[in-house]
Fold this protein.
Amino acid sequence: MTYDLLIGQRGHSSWSLRGWLPFAVFGIDVSVHSTRIYSDTFAAEVAAFGGAGTVPVVKTPQGGLLTDSIAIAWHLAEAFPDKGLLPAAPKDRAEALSLIAEMHSGFTALRGACPMNLYTGWANFETPPKVRADLDRIDSIWSRALDRSGGPFLYGDYTLVDAFYAPVATRIATYGLSVSNTAQTYVRTHLAQPDFRRWRAMALAEGPELPQYDMPLERSPFPAVPALDARPLDAGSPVNDLCPYSDLPVTLLAQIGRRVFGFCNAFCRDKTVVDAEAWPAFMRIYDS
């Protein structure tokens, strides 16, 4: 029973991230399909998949169609009641549903002024009053939940609420936005979460930052978890004959640490170069 999920570019499509994280974090089988936002073919590709002009879109194994991230969330929580997608306590569950809905419909000032960008940081961003108001509300939500649960996520373990606020955490990181120490710790927790690390690695392997997301600001490094030193290579003798992801013969190389490893295609190589430790299949070879 496999779902089909249509997403946009990982580095910029915050709603695609919200749609994908529940599948990844909770181990729900999904086949991921990609389209490119701002491309001439975007609308036609979304329509062909069954969508209504936006991503993400999900086809269920039963033939159902989910054309909105909140519908995806509700469906998965209902379809997999034993996976813990929502908090178990009735009071927490009710609050979680409210916070997901608030994220889905709110914080438009923050979302408009600070689009998601996983390629870079931006320095000296001046926070407009409406963005500050959004941040204050978000900080209040996070701090209240974390003080009560003890973390590391809003209700202790990862839930759909965390998936919906993950792109907010990336915005705070990208633009260096001022929030409380509790909220900053929660941001760092998101940046270190293994599935998010894999998403960002795939984002950088997909291709360059879109020009529509450029800002009239000084660039700074994105505050990602430190990665192993790695770079692509044109020639060398790899320690492995088969790609760690596909088991196909290696055709492209990268130096990671002090050794050379082979991969079956550029995407496999490049996502590993970005963040090798995010990929258990690669690390089994690296550590052997």
User: Anything to note?
Assistant: The two ends are 34 Å apart (CA to CA).
